[in-house]
Specification:
This protein is mainly beta. About 5% of the residues lie in helices and about 70% in strands. The strands form two sheets. Strands 1, 2, 3, 4, 5, 6, 7, 10, 11, 12 and 13 form an eleven-stranded antiparallel sheet that branches. A two-stranded antiparallel ribbon has the order 8-9.
């Protein structure tokens, strides 16, 4: 394996030294997969009956299919810059627990618990990367990394709906309403790509990328969820070169 990698890099270095300095554009059109699931916690606190309702929700966001489109510009045969736009919409479920005040007695909270589904987490991300690539025949191996700018929109539980009857010592959960919150965190990404040139103008390629940013979602410090968005992302598709 080490000998194979060495041969690829030597071939790339040789072609870099012998080829004329020539710029090149490449458009990438990829189907993509956000392969990593996301788990995160949310807190909601609001006043009721001269005390406070406190809701804790544990969210689980599934992996999701999406897309990536990108443009690469080769400054030299080996080094280039790339911009990639991707989007993934994840299905989210949550397990909530809450304490709600007693209408007649202080410090006698009633406990509620339940689950919620049908929520979403929408990740749109722009990657701005430096790229190093080496070639061997029709194959090209690339290593890249840089900044990632995320736009994150997620639905979070905002309150608990419940029913109770006199003497109000117990309550029954009836609903977990949600609202959408957003954030635009900056993060990073690193990855590997492998392309195959079908012709001088058209190719096929695949890439694996790890990206990460921390989003804070919610109206204030007492009502928020901290989400580490990104994770492992896989993509494959068509390359158009000119």
């Amino acid at each position: 394996m080490q000998k194979l990698l060495l041969a690829v890099f030597v071939a790339g270095a040789a072609s870099t030294g012998s080829a004329e300095a020539q710029t090149r554009f490449e458009i990438r059109l990829d189907g993509a997969l956000a392969a990593s699931g996301l788990d995160y916690d949310g807190t909601r606190v609001y006043p009721e009956a001269q005390e406070s309702v406190r809701v804790q929700t544990r969210y689980s966001a599934e992996s999701a299919a999406g897309f990536e489109v990108g443009l690469r510009f080769d400054v030299t045969p080996a080094f280039g810059v790339a911009v990639t736009l991707g989007r993934f919409v994840r299905d989210v479920s949550g397990d909530a627990s809450a304490s709600v005040p007693h209408p007649f007695h202080f410090d006698r909270d009633r406990a509620l618990a339940g689950s919620v589904g049908g929520l979403t987490l929408d990740e749109t991300v722009g990657h701005f990367d430096l790229v190093y690539s080496v070639g061997a025949g029709a194959l090209e191996l690339s290593v890249f990394g840089g900044l990632s700018a995320f736009k994150v929109e997620a639905e979070l539980v905002t309150r608990v709906d419940y029913a109770h009857a006199y003497p109000y010592d117990e309550a029954t959960l009836t609903g977990l309403p949600a609202a959408t919150f957003d954030d635009s965190p900056l993060g990073f990404n690193v990855g590997l790509g492998l392309d195959y040139a079908v012709s001088t103008a058209v190719g096929l390629g695949a890439r694996a990328r790890f990206a990460r940013a921390s989003a804070t979602l919610g109206p204030d410090a007492d009502n928020r969820a901290e989400v580490d968005v990104g994770g492992l992302q896989l993509a494959a598709g068509v390359r158009i070169r000119f």
